[in-house]
Amino acid sequence: MKIVQYLKGLGEFSFLLQQLVKRDFKVKYKRSILGVLWSVLYPLFMMAIMVTVFQNLFRMTGGEINYPVYIITGLVLFNFLTDATNLALVSVIGSFSLITKIYIPKYIFPLSKVLTGVVNWFFQLIALYGVIIATKQPITILHFWLLFDVLCLFLFTLGMGLILSALMVFFRDMQYLYSLIVLAWTYMTPIFYDISIVGKQLEPLFRANPMYQYITFARNIILYNRMPTIQQFLFIFIAGITTLIVGLTFFKKVQDKFIYYI
């Protein structure tokens, strides 16, 4: 019910939300020579580096798996999470002047940052499909199910963004702590390696990582041309909606105290 109430409130401030997203997008590429092209080139550069460094190390050769597509699929999804949550982290404290002058639902600010992350992600999607086409990886009708994967990841990311933006108001060191969390999370997510190398004892822990499930869902479709299992569908949906509900509940509970700390 809380989500429905928030959705109704969005209608009144939809114009403001659009303007915030446009502003963030323009600021990101202001005075940049390559502009939005950087969003396409960045995952390509990272993929090239990882392929060069890790392909022989993890014995993932072109004959066994399309390693460039394997890596860039993980990068594009994980980059969306990290970019959007890092933007959302400082969204409330960065909007101090607006919050203290006029009434605006405070959840608008982390939401606008996550939507900005979605816009940036679309450019990275160009890089993903560029590599898919360049390496002659088949594109099937199953690719439409990626929309469900991204939608669930959006819900998960928004929930995290709400939690992080609220915590940042009370604990300014949260930005440094979160950078360490992201670093650990990166290595605990099989972006450039296969989960089988972690061993049977640690494998259940790694599989419980939501980002592993979101990335594996996409890889099943893109790399293996197979429909994800019912369990995978349920996991990514439950992870997304549960995190969003927790995020909204926590944010609403503490938002009235923001004014005393900002």
Helix-strand layout with pairing:
Layout: H1 2-12, H2 14-28, H3 37-54, H4 67-89, H5 96-99, H6 108-134, H7 146-170, H8 174-187, H9 203-207, H10 210-222, H11 230-254, H12 258-261
**Number of strand segments:** 0
State the major sheet: none
Ends distance:
29 Å
- Helical fraction equals over 70%
Query: What is the assembly state of the chains in this entry?
Result: single chain
Listing every helix as H and every strand as E from the N terminus to the C terminus, the arrangement reads HHHHHHHHHHHH
Strand composition percent: under 5%
Strand-pairing-aware structural class: mainly alpha
| Shape label | globular
Nearest-integer average pLDDT: 86
Count of alpha/pi helices: 12
User: What Rg, in angstroms, do the CA atoms define?
Assistant: 19 Å
Question: Ranges with pLDDT <50 over ≥5 residues?
Answer: none
Describe, in plain words, how this protein is organized in 3D.
The protein is an all-alpha fold and 262 residues long. 70% of the residues lie in helices and 0% in strands. It contains twelve helices and no strands. The longest helix has 27 residues, at 108-134. The two termini are 29 Å apart.
Key features?
262 residues; mainly alpha
Summarize this, please?
With 262 residues, this protein is an all-alpha fold.
